[in-house]
Write a structure and sequence with these properties.
A hairpin with a 2-residue loop joins β5 (344-350) and β6. The longest helix is centred in the first third of the chain and has 59 residues, at 3-61. Helices cover 56% and strands 19% of the residues. Strands 4, 5, 6, 7, 8, 9, 10 and 11 form an eight-stranded antiparallel sheet that branches. Strands 2-1-3 form a three-stranded antiparallel sheet. The protein is α+β, with helices and mostly antiparallel strands and 447 residues long. It has ten helices and eleven strands. It has helices spanning 3-61, 78-82, 90-121, 128-151, 162-184, 193-222, 228-232, 240-247, 267-299, 305-337; strands at residues 63-69, 72-77, 158-159, 261-265, 344-350, 353-360, 379-391, 396-405, 410-422, 425-431, 437-442.
Length: 447
């Protein structure tokens, strides 16, 4: 072998060694980068797991509502709500169902996050579908938390912390699950500092919009004086002041605790009436003030004729404005009272307490001509709320019942009934306030 050939072989060996070192360094760098990325995903998955565990614990530990009975304060915890120890109304049923949804979502999400962590620790890639499923679960849990928050504002007190915490925690888990899903695809997303800030801002706005978009409409609907869930939280025997605390002031401004009947219309109608009343009172106040000024001027020793003339013009103009709003308000009230609302709530009172509750959800459509009978509404369900005053000799009792109708209407009343006892079950037959014979059963007699 010549000198040149030997030199060429040595150069080739050195070149191969450099290439091998470079390749090994690249592999080590990629391995380190992969381990770093894998560690980041494990940490993020652990945060998701911890978040779901926190959501589950909050469902049992935190309070759904703060309940006030007179001067005594009680708290309704998540455990009690899940066990059904809640006030007997539709809102309570919604809370129990939504809280159960939150618990199921939290437990399922925690299990999926734990599977992801185990998979990553074993050196496997994270499953994209699992993270997508966790994002959907988080969204469902957030909706459940918002529903708990919206329905927990009982007539006795205010909503507790549970609904708010659940909504916020699940919203954060939704964002984290989406982040894990994008990371697990292996695609690198490069964002500038401005892009990162913009992404964070948009995420915050989306979360807030979701919470407001879900909770506010539910709260608005459930606070309507013609909403059966809202009205259904009123019990027979409730006094005038607890009723208006729940439904707001009745439509008739002359209603009081001595009234025999209280009436409410839909939320938009009640707001329209409130606006008309405010404008009416404002014009009346202005007119009264001007008339008082005129009386004071005429009572003075030296009447300023220029001032008197100006006041007369002002009074004339104020009187026109008052007459206009007075006529418009009177006409509109009369129009509303003659089937001008889609729905109506009527509560009959006896000595300042509720004796009969009726929500007609299809009131405008139920208008009938004079001399004709109103069509009988189709019944959806009949519920015996409580039974008392049992007379075994005659087989009679007094019961409070609730009838739900297919068109969304509701009736709560008290009447006499006949009953038959079979073990702990009481089968009752009675005629409702509309003259229709009903029957229902109850397992226990209320004290």
């Amino acid at each position: 072998m010549t000198q040149n050939e030997q030199t060429a072989v040595e150069k080739e060996e050195i070149f191969d060694a450099v290439l091998n070192e470079t390749a090994d360094a690249g592999k080590s760098e990629k391995k380190a980068e992969g381990e770093k990325s894998n560690s980041g995903m494990i940490l993020l998955a652990a945060c998701v797991f911890a978040g779901f565990i926190l959501a589950a614990l909050c469902s049992f530990v935190l309070n759904v509502a703060d309940v006030y009975l007179g001067d005594v304060r009680f708290t309704l915890s998540g455990v009690e709500a899940l066990h059904g120890i809640t006030p007997a109304d539709d809102s309570a049923s919604v809370i129990t169902v939504c809280l159960m949804i939150c618990v199921v979502c939290a437990v399922t999400g925690a299990a999926i996050a734990l599977l992801s962590i185990i998979s990553l620790l074993g050196g496997k890639k994270m499953n994209v579908a699992l993270n997508l499923f966790n994002a959907v679960i988080s969204l469902l849990g957030m909706i459940g938390g918002c529903m708990v928050l919206s329905n927990a504002d009982y007539k006795w007190g205010g909503a507790g912390s549970l609904g708010t915490v659940e909504a916020v925690v699940f919203a954060l888990l939704f964002v984290l699950s989406l982040a894990l899903m994008f990371i697990s695809t292996g695609k690198k997303i490069q964002l500038s500092l401005f892009g990162k800030k913009l992404f964070a801002g948009i995420s915050a706005v989306v979360i807030v919009a979701l919470i407001i978009g879900i909770s506010v409409p539910v709260a608005v609907i459930s606070s309507s004086p013609t909403n059966t869930t809202n009205v259904g939280s009123i019990s027979l025997g409730d006094d005038y002041y607890s009723i208006i605390e729940q439904l707001g002031e009745p439509f008739d401004e002359n209603s009081s605790e001595h009234s025999d009947m209280l009436v409410w219309y839909t939320k938009d109608i009640m707001k329209e009436k409130y606006d008309l009343d405010s404008e009416y009172e404002s014009k009346k106040f202005t007119l009264d003030e001007l008339n008082a000024d005129m009386e004071a001027l005429l009572a003075s020793e030296n009447v300023d004729e220029a001032r008197k003339t100006a006041l007369e013009k002002q009074i004339e103009e104020a009187q026109k404005e008052f007459d206009e709003i007075d006529g418009r308000r009177t006409a509109r009230i009369e129009e509303i009272e003659n089937y001008g609302s889609d729905a109506v709530t009527v509560i009959m009172m006896n000595e300042g307490r509720a004796e009969f509750i009726f929500v007609d959800a299809d009131w405008k459509a139920s208008k009938v001509e004079e001399g004709e009978e109103a069509p009988v509404k189709k019944t959806s369900s009949v519920t015996i709320i409580n039974i008392y005053g049992l007379d075994s000799a005659s087989g009679s009792c007094i019961l409070t019942y609730k009838v739900d109708y297919e068109d969304g209407s509701m009736c709560i009343a008290r009447t006499e009934a006949s009953y038959e006892r079979g073990g702990t079950s009481y089968k009752c037959v009675f005629t409702d306030i509309f003259g229709v014979e009903r029957q229902g059963s109850k397992l226990a007699v209320a004290a």
